[in-house]
Amino acid sequence: MLVTADKLLMLVDGRYSAECRLNNPGTDVITLTTEHPLAEHLSDHGTLFTDASALSHLAWQTLEKQCSVRLQHWDASVLRVHKYPDEIAKIRQAAAIADEALRTVMPRIQPGITEKALADHLEMAVRQAGGSKTSFDTVVVSGTRGALPHGRPTDKKLAEGEIVTIDFGAVYQHYCSDMTRTFALGNVNPELKALYDTVLTAQQSARDAVRPGMRCQELDAVARDIIAAAGYGGYFSHNLGHGLGLDVHEAPALSPQNTQSLEPGMVITIEPGIYIPGLGGVRIEDDVLVTESGSDVLTQSPRAWKDICL
Ligand code: GLY
Ligand code: MN
Ligand code: MN
Question: Which of 6, 105, 190, 281 is the most buried (most CB within 10 A)?
């Protein structure tokens, strides 16, 4: 997109021009060709503000050279941090699709199924429930592999006595959801149950604490302090959560460092976890809209211990 004071141009190559015209009525869509390259449209502009997070270093240098422009980084995430009502409706639907997909697949979360097969079923269920695709590569980790926060599903089979963590999301009309649930298969080691209870308490407390005006770092601390008090402080190895929208990771980061305040219209994840090498891990993640009066939790799948014991 080239945005100037008086025009908005969508510049695409021939693979996309017909589709872009179809999906963006009223927008000028220009097809780039060898005879009419990007330089023709950019070279008059001197300095262009560009989000560097969307370009490789090489692409940035090549653009500057070939188009005779100077690019200056501009953080486009500021445009995305507050969601419009129609965006919130789409994220809400993406969350509902994830809930529906998990409900469909839950009977298959049993000893004997492989992590990969479970991920395949879940991804198909997302599409069948109305999603266009999953919002990132589905995580399914079982047994001691649960200590890998973002482990990829393998041919390992789920076994009795293990816990399994599933982290996935749906895309609905380009907007993402992102949800994690951990399930227990039969009788699990009491320490795993203790991990679960701690993470659930931390997650519920953070969910309950969400309100406009709270700093991101304060919300992170609500969960982090509970996990530390239970003796697992060294095992919560990531931020409490992140913004969510067109991308699965957007501003604001719910990190111990971020002093930014929550504001109505932000959509965030709340996803504390504990990961102990050799034992396993637990994470619980929900998507939460910050409202004028507090919050609205968008993902609804059950989290109580009785509901996640299969
Ligand atoms: N799976 C991506 C996330 O939870 O942040
Ligand atoms: Mn996730
Ligand atoms: Mn997440």
Answer: 281
